[in-house]
Amino acid sequence: MIDSDNIASALEQQARLQPEGIALIVPQRRVGERWLDERFSYRQLDDLSQRLAAGLQASGIVPGTRVAFMVPPSLEFFALFFALFKAGCVPVLIDPGIGTKSLKSCLGEACPEVFIGISRAQLARMLLGWGRGHVRQTITVGPRPFWRGLRYRDLAMADATGFVPPVVGPDDPAAILFTSGSTGIPKGVVYRHRHFAAQVRLVREAYSIQPGEVDLPTFPPFALFDPALGMTTVIPTMDFTRPARVDPDMLVSLIRHYRVTNLFGSPALMDTLTRHLDARSMTLPTLKRVLSAGAPVPPRVVERMHRALPAGADIHTPYGATECLPVATISGRELAEGLSQGNRGGLGICVGKPLDANRVRVIQINDQALPETASAISVAAGEIGEICVAGPTATDTYWRRQEQTRLAKMIDPRGVVWHRMGDLGRFDEQGRLWYCGRKSERVETADGALYTECIEGRINAISGVFRSALVGVGDVGRQVPVVIVEPESDREPESCRIKVAQAMQLYSETASIRHLLLHPSLPVDIRHNAKIKRGSLAAWAALRLPAAAIKQA
Questions:
Q1: Most Cβ neighbours (<10 Å): which of 95, 219, 277, 544?
Q2: In angstroms, rounded to a whole number, what is the distance separating the alpha carbons of residues 127 and 123?
Q3: Looking at residues 20-27, what average pLDDT do you find?
């Protein structure tokens, strides 16, 4: 349990329970199979964050101040983030990989008054005008461009005894986390302190995480759970904006050297790692669990990871979104026992049963706002509709995005907020949830709707296919469905195309799709390197289809 409404109390609690326990390991250099590193205890991390919070307060940064935060995983990353919570500030997290134009737009929406970043981020802010007109104070981790603003090293007070913690309530804003915008515009999700507290509790309970475990998180936001869960964080030496390009040998070395028990990563990173493990028949005997989220996890990735795990360990694929996480979860062993065949058979991807704390409905597909749940009509089990969730982690608003909030939220008679996930899915007879694709990416043909994960599951099961995408070209209601295939790098493209075309004729769902294109590398999102950008692919496909084919539809 967390001692107070402020999520920062979770770190303070761990500092009391295990003061000399290692909170953070920062590997510096690899020497053979060993690593030289820096280590920081929970007492040290909590003390540093306390002194930084005092420095923020002494600098006139008051509770409620929005703070743009661009610091990569490091000691400074953890210490500053918890210091911001302690000082009652509201950190604004934006993935730097979304592009300079989108990043500037997001900062323009968030209107941060303070900008904390490494030297490169501060320089980009100055040159590109990020936060211009709003940022009144800067704090730089590293050398200050043109000697402007405060230095991180000067922020930490020598003595924090004069620090007065602000009063924070469970409904007070804790952070603004921007979505990646992979299927729409990036939106700032307002997290309240109760949302973070609930996430810590649900993650701990769902996966039986124990204090003293060792985590290797390859996605920075997830790493912030570690101190609250009492785990030791090992920071991998990687480019966090390019998880698919991670060095798998480095990951294996860190896992073995530090006896890592928990690994978190995107499906793209897991694909890279498991190919490396499988090709060398390598195992990871210290791991207790692997978590992969952010996009659908292909069955072959789950199966390869299983071969590398010891008995009793498992890979889990939690389902959720920035706006609501976790919603449901399923273990790899459940998938391996036959549910993955459902994906290969066109049923979508099984994401498991909802967590006990959540209520989940599947409603009729509707692109309009539904202010009240009474307007939402539930579908029967087995029927595809939009997934909606109410629970302790379901956020209630986007920052300064009233229209998007209106489209994504519903209120029930008790005043509880339901989040419309924007995902399509179905419940099976056992109460398991199956994900069938994004609502905005369904293909509406003259003969009915086609759903991305249902079609792509069959295509991806064909030997030689690395991944595929279903897109629609033309007007909604008369769209022309197109399947775009990225072959495995070691396969001859034309032979792969012929094989896929023949296989598509075997199933009623795919036999009517007349257009099949090859693509050398499907575009994916920057955050997880796994969500396919079907919107840009649809435009690409439109240029390659005969004009007559589109008109006839």
A1: 95
A2: 6
A3: 97
State how beta strands 324-329 and 359-363 pair. unpaired
Beta strands in 144-242 (DSSP E): 150-151, 173-178, 188-192, 214-217, 232-234
Instruction: Name the residue ranges covered by the structural domains of the chain.
Output: 45-168, 442-552
Q: What is the mean pLDDT of the chain?
A: 93
45-168 and 442-552 have identical folds = no
> In the numeric block, which tokens belong to residue 317?
């694929």
How many CB atoms neighbour CB 21 within 10 A? Answer: 16
Q: How many angstroms separate the CA atoms of 229 and 389, rounded?
A: 25
Which secondary structure element, helix H or strand E, spans residue 141, and what is its range? strand 137-141
- Single out the residue of 495, 466, 468 nearest to residue 481, CA to CA: 468
**Does the pLDDT value for residue 146 go beyond 90?**
no
Residues 6+ apart with CB under 8 A from 75: 24, 26, 38, 40, 45, 48
Return the closest-CA partner of residue 364 out of 346, 382, 384.
Answer: 384
**Rounded mean pLDDT, 445-463:** 95
CATH architecture of the domain covering 442-552: 2-Layer Sandwich (3.30)
Q: How far is Cα 474 from Cα 551, in angstroms, rounded to an integer?
A: 8
Cα torsion angle, 44, 46, 48, 54, sign? negative
Q: Looking at the DSSP assignment, which residues form a beta bridge with residue 387?
A: 362
CATH 3.40.50.980 applies to domain 45-168: yes
Q: What pLDDT, on the 0 to 100 scale, is given for residue 440? A: 95
Percent of the chain with pLDDT over 70: 97
The pLDDT score that the predictor gives to residue 448 is 94
Q: What's the pLDDT score for residue 40? A: 97
